[in-house]
Amino acid sequence: MARTGRIREKLRWSKIYTFSCIRPTGSMTADASPSLSLPGPGHSRVVRCNQPHAHRRNPLNYPSNYISTTKYNIVTFLPKAIFEQFRRVANLYFLLAACLSVTSISPFSPVSMIAPLAFVVGLSMAKEALEDWRRFVQDMKVNIRKAIVHKGNGRFGNKFWHKIRVGDVVKVEKNQFFPADLLLLSSSYEDGICYVETMNLDGETNLKVKRSLEVTLPLEDDQSFNDFSATIQCEDPNSSLYTFVGNLEYERQVYALDPSQILLRDSKLRNTSYIYGVVIFTGHDTKVMQNATESPSKRSRIEKKMDYIIYILFTVLVLVSLISSIGFAVKTKFEMPEWWYLQPQRVGDSHLYNLSTPGLSGIFHLVTALILYGYLIPISLYVSIEVVKVLQAMFINQDLQMYDEETGNPAQARTSNLNEELGQVDTILSDKTGTLTCNQMDFLKCSIAGFSYGLRSSEVEIAAAKQIASEESGGSVQNGSGIDYWENGGSSCGSSPEIKLEGGITCKIEKARKPMIKGFSFEDDRLMQGNWLSEPDPDVILLFFRILAVCHTAIPELDEETGSFTYEAESPDEGAFLVAAREFGFEFCRRTQTSVFVRERYPSSADPIEREFKILNLLEFNSKRKRMSVVIRDENGQVLLLCKGADSIIFDRLSKNGRMYEVDTSKHLNEYGEAGLRTLALAYRKLEESEYSTWNTDFLKAKTAIGPDREAQLEQASDMIEKELILVGATAVEDKLQKGVPQCIDKLAQAGLKIWVLTGDKMETAINIGFSCSLLRQGMKQICISPVNKDLITQDANKALVLSLVTEQAVKEDIQKQITNASQMIKLETDPHAASALIIDGKALTYALEEDMKQQFLSLAVDCASVICCRVSPKQKALVTRLVKEGTGKVTLAIGDGANDVGMIQEADIGVGISGVEGMQAVMASDFSISQFRYLERLLVVHGHWCYKRIAQMICYFFYKNIAFGLTLFYFEAYTGFSGQSVYDDWYMILFNVILTSLPVISLGVFEQDVSSEVCLQFPALYQQGPKNLFFDWYRIIGWMSNGLYSSLMIFFLNIGIFFTQAFRQGGQTADMAAIGTTMFTCIIWAVNMQISLTMCHFTWIQIVLVCGSIATWYLFLLAYGESSPLISGNAFHILVEALAPSPVFWSVTLLVTAACNLPYLIHISYQRLYNPMDHHVIQEIKYYKKDVEDQCMWTRERSKARSATKIGFTARVDAKIRQLKGKLHMKVSSLSAQTVVLPPSPDVL
């Protein structure tokens, strides 16, 4: 479907920018035969613009735009999946046994060995195929998105993303994602400017400005591409998001290309109606996919440790097989010739029982024994674990507490291989933008002319007030819920409706009302509805509002439905300032090339007056400057410089006469910071016309300069004008985190988890977010590591230029020195409440991650309470994750929502994707997906804790029952002269793992709960049982194996001892092998099922039915099997009805052996609960006796103990706030006491 171009907006936004979008002047070369080639390797890519078919054949043959994040495809599935299955040691053993089962030395038929292995491996492969199919479906959701592509003759039409080729001309409209890496040709703006949101790539919320080459500006509509042709030579595909080198040959001229013309896949077009671009990189050649890594095959630590247990059991298997084969060889040589009834001389050429070669017979018997004792290695363990993990994943998927009603997205376990790993996480590495934040700022407070305005309290103040009020009222707790700073209402605060914090600020203990206006939560009648005119300094307040309305780069958009303006700002802060200015009566309504128009309702009481402020110059914000300024001319002709920025930068630039409000404003800024708010200082300066003209001449010269020192010249020019400022006030906005993020971080910190934030955003924004979510707090020592020490930074641009010339080795040494000094500072710290936070930027991280420094960096990071890495690339995120994973040797979890997080999600032991609105790349690469960060609390603290304990107990029990069963075969073989005879019927052995003991152990792995989900959340320290590996350490594993060894001894020797000499039947007959074997097997069934009953803490009707049903199934099978034909049942014909059931010895032995097998375990757990109880034992007892209801004080005390000591999180922040307030109160009381003096007696008295 053809589309015509839209009318181009005749605005040249590029003229307002100083530091961005510098366009090269002229062509790179004007020779008649220009050279398109680029020097050096890695620049061999050639793109024929508007000729996509040219790239489908050699020598170009570039890949399509199809992407895949699956682990397998049709060709690789079988080999890779089979390799995955036979990485498991047990499967390798059973493969060997299955191969040997076709020979004459096997004690079993081939079907009995091959069928179980094929079933186990096939089921596991089917599960892998299903999970990978789900990844494929999500990939296709991206691949079948539609883009508008040039189809020839100036006609554009829709095409699927995966069909886009290199060279295609693509038209992208507002709020759409770029389908591939594009070269910007033109935009809806006259000068080719467009705004791009790269949040999905680097996590930054600020919009980036891109600008096309001037030569391509005439390509302004669909028809202009009818005969468009050009050639691009550029760098080969690489992972660098911030660099690009290339040339464009167009109309026989060659033009240099740089990153400002490149639009990367998965970034979004904003504030621009449309752009035209030509595809340079597609599919896996795009920079975002180059930053991705291949989907790894992850295995949990428990599964890896299980391999070592298999090694141990295999060693035991070989050992007992060697004993059996040596015993058999000895018997063959010395005793078998005398066994005339076996007729050994008639064995012929068989080597199995050859009297002349007993050694060879022993070797063949070794193979037979290895197969016979295979029950020591539980083949059904893996398939049982697979079944259990799939069911656990279903429970995670169906948990309504992790279902997001707004988006309709449930939690999803995309792979079930790592369920138990969720319960062993030590460090969480989180993205910021879209994961912790929802990119919304709310204007909450401000300081103007030394007065603080804004009565609404932040969440930090509300929580601290609740805690103090609770202490004042005696700390009573209702409903056993304990003190929850986040609960609505003041039920935990006694009768105190409000509390005075400090500085006259009163905090109401109630849930903050939801703001009716997005971005504006300010409440103070002194500034609203024109009441500010009655304040002491109305002129300063007027100037404050005008700075908010004028000092920005936003674009207004009229909402025709509501009649109000919305603002497309480069940062959420600017949007909040403009909304605040509008609500105060100063509405930014229009921008032209040179002016900003503001509708002011005050001081005039009549209709709003539209005032024009001419924009003379704009010095935009960047992370180095930490400030933004505009030079304007108001309607009176006065030239003003309006400036906003970080308070430390602004205060250093104040004039002597401009510091009137500095002390009060600094006090307010500290209070706002303690409340977790983001702050900026506002200032201004009046300029004389002559002064401005002189400066503007120098500034334009620096702006038009070309060369490496251009930026230094601009910085120097900016410093000349941004000085001698007069302070006006400060703003405080609340960075809106996603719902429940501070609570979740607080709970995870109490659970003992360490939390790192890895973000592509600038350092100041990352620090502010750290304060908002309580990873940082006032009083915490911030260790900021950057390539140039902050102590060296000056305002002199010449010195900055000298510093930029420092050699790379010197920079590296400086980084190492900063890390060393910080480590020493932490070690020398003596205050037990002191906490440090490490904040490092991407450039410093480049050096810190080098081989000779990374361990030192990791040691420092581990010693800090929180770590924030900012301005990091996707590759650096993955490298940091790898460093933490390999350096600490502990389980890491990475969580993010964008394509820039894919690397770290895949590198971490566990990857969690946020299924938000900004694409699905993170989800497609993840192991688990949730819709909001707050659900991570339940995923780890509840499901992770349960899954870890379930899997650990299940595996230990599996080894116990197989050892208890398998060793009885060895005992009997040794007892019968190493004959290779099994005491059990073949059908008994087949059914043991398949039916009779499989379902109870699966129910243990699916339904077991040591405590309920509510208790898990109330006692977060219980989670530490997983990272400490209390339920799957070698002590517990060996204990369970020893229990299996003991049970096997009791089962065999008690049965043999009782049945050996005495009569078994009423007629006086002794028991035969069938009777002894069946009785022993009955004892095993009872013993292992009673053992699992003692192991379970939580019984459901399903577990009761399965445990009791397993025992009942054995008797029903024995009855049915005995009633079958003797040709089928053999020696077991009528064995239950005629032999076992009538015999009291059978029932007595069953009871005796079952009790003897389980008595030691019962004594052990009784002693442990009495004298050395674990945390969950205490909680279980409290809940059983209902002490949580009857004794609230004890329940509260136990809850307070169930928090891991932490220096981050909201609780730690509130505790610090309380210590601060109590310290101030103590100082105040002390000062009052010191002022109390004894007055002299009155003269009248004398």
UniProtKB/TrEMBL annotation:
<dbReference type="InterPro" id="IPR018303">
    <property type="entry name" value="ATPase_P-typ_P_site"/>
</dbReference>
<feature type="binding site">
    <location>
        <position position="433"/>
    </location>
    <ligand>
        <name>ATP</name>
    </ligand>
</feature>
<feature type="transmembrane region" description="Helical">
    <location>
        <begin position="1070"/>
        <end position="1088"/>
    </location>
</feature>
<dbReference type="InterPro" id="IPR044492">
    <property type="entry name" value="P_typ_ATPase_HD_dom"/>
</dbReference>
<keyword id="KW-1133">Transmembrane helix</keyword>
<feature type="binding site">
    <location>
        <position position="897"/>
    </location>
    <ligand>
        <name>Mg(2+)</name>
    </ligand>
</feature>
<dbReference type="InterPro" id="IPR001757">
    <property type="entry name" value="P_typ_ATPase"/>
</dbReference>
<dbReference type="InterPro" id="IPR032630">
    <property type="entry name" value="P_typ_ATPase_c"/>
</dbReference>
<dbReference type="InterPro" id="IPR023298">
    <property type="entry name" value="ATPase_P-typ_TM_dom_sf"/>
</dbReference>
<dbReference type="GO" id="GO:0045332">
    <property type="term" value="P:phospholipid translocation"/>
</dbReference>
<dbReference type="Pfam" id="PF16212">
    <property type="entry name" value="PhoLip_ATPase_C"/>
</dbReference>
<feature type="binding site">
    <location>
        <position position="877"/>
    </location>
    <ligand>
        <name>ATP</name>
    </ligand>
</feature>
<dbReference type="InterPro" id="IPR032631">
    <property type="entry name" value="P-type_ATPase_N"/>
</dbReference>
<keyword id="KW-0812">Transmembrane</keyword>
<feature type="binding site">
    <location>
        <position position="760"/>
    </location>
    <ligand>
        <name>ATP</name>
    </ligand>
</feature>
<keyword id="KW-0472">Membrane</keyword>
<comment type="similarity">
    <text>Belongs to the cation transport ATPase (P-type) (TC 3.A.3) family. Type IV subfamily.</text>
</comment>
<keyword id="KW-1017">Isopeptide bond</keyword>
<feature type="binding site">
    <location>
        <position position="644"/>
    </location>
    <ligand>
        <name>ATP</name>
    </ligand>
</feature>
<feature type="transmembrane region" description="Helical">
    <location>
        <begin position="1100"/>
        <end position="1121"/>
    </location>
</feature>
<feature type="binding site">
    <location>
        <position position="759"/>
    </location>
    <ligand>
        <name>ATP</name>
    </ligand>
</feature>
<feature type="binding site">
    <location>
        <position position="901"/>
    </location>
    <ligand>
        <name>ATP</name>
    </ligand>
</feature>
<feature type="transmembrane region" description="Helical">
    <location>
        <begin position="1045"/>
        <end position="1064"/>
    </location>
</feature>
<feature type="domain" description="P-type ATPase C-terminal">
    <location>
        <begin position="923"/>
        <end position="1173"/>
    </location>
</feature>
<dbReference type="GO" id="GO:0005524">
    <property type="term" value="F:ATP binding"/>
</dbReference>
<dbReference type="Pfam" id="PF16209">
    <property type="entry name" value="PhoLip_ATPase_N"/>
</dbReference>
<feature type="transmembrane region" description="Helical">
    <location>
        <begin position="363"/>
        <end position="385"/>
    </location>
</feature>
<feature type="binding site">
    <location>
        <position position="431"/>
    </location>
    <ligand>
        <name>ATP</name>
    </ligand>
</feature>
<feature type="transmembrane region" description="Helical">
    <location>
        <begin position="308"/>
        <end position="330"/>
    </location>
</feature>
<keyword id="KW-0460">Magnesium</keyword>
<feature type="transmembrane region" description="Helical">
    <location>
        <begin position="1145"/>
        <end position="1163"/>
    </location>
</feature>
<keyword id="KW-0832">Ubl conjugation</keyword>
<dbReference type="GO" id="GO:0000287">
    <property type="term" value="F:magnesium ion binding"/>
</dbReference>
<feature type="binding site">
    <location>
        <position position="574"/>
    </location>
    <ligand>
        <name>ATP</name>
    </ligand>
</feature>
<feature type="binding site">
    <location>
        <position position="871"/>
    </location>
    <ligand>
        <name>ATP</name>
    </ligand>
</feature>
<feature type="binding site">
    <location>
        <position position="901"/>
    </location>
    <ligand>
        <name>Mg(2+)</name>
    </ligand>
</feature>
<dbReference type="InterPro" id="IPR036412">
    <property type="entry name" value="HAD-like_sf"/>
</dbReference>
<feature type="binding site">
    <location>
        <position position="678"/>
    </location>
    <ligand>
        <name>ATP</name>
    </ligand>
</feature>
<dbReference type="GO" id="GO:0016887">
    <property type="term" value="F:ATP hydrolysis activity"/>
</dbReference>
<keyword id="KW-0547">Nucleotide-binding</keyword>
<dbReference type="InterPro" id="IPR008250">
    <property type="entry name" value="ATPase_P-typ_transduc_dom_A_sf"/>
</dbReference>
<feature type="active site" description="4-aspartylphosphate intermediate">
    <location>
        <position position="431"/>
    </location>
</feature>
